[in-house]
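Lab notebook: predicted structure, single chain.

Context: the supervisor wants predicted structures on file for every construct in the current expression panel, including those that have not yet been purified. This is the next one on the list. No modifications to the sequence; it matches the entry in the shared construct table.
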Amino acid sequence: MIQERSILKVADNSGAKIVRCFRVLGGGRKRYAEIGEIIIASVQVAEPRKQIKKKDIVRALVVRQRKPLRRSDGSYVRFGDNAVVIIDKDKKEPKATRIFGPIPREIKALGYDAITSLAEELV
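Prediction complete. Output recorded below exactly as produced.
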């Protein structure tokens, strides 16, 4: 459950390390984002000399969350951290060239094939 002011790790090599969510997309009163939803975030910590700088406003896809995610077969998947991947504003393409850590299968089902192909492992 990601909400406004949530601090999230960035699971790619775009240059951002930590972002803070300040808007959950999907309607005016939408309060929480789950895996597979897009948020607008501000970069809090960034690596020097990379394409994304501190204070940049980015769109990010939630790829991991601490809250257990129920699958259709009745099983649950839970991750140890809340993490996002920074994506382009217009397309469903990641800005980075590598993605770190596990990514759930639900991301591929939502049409983010480029993200799942760059991921280390699918869970």
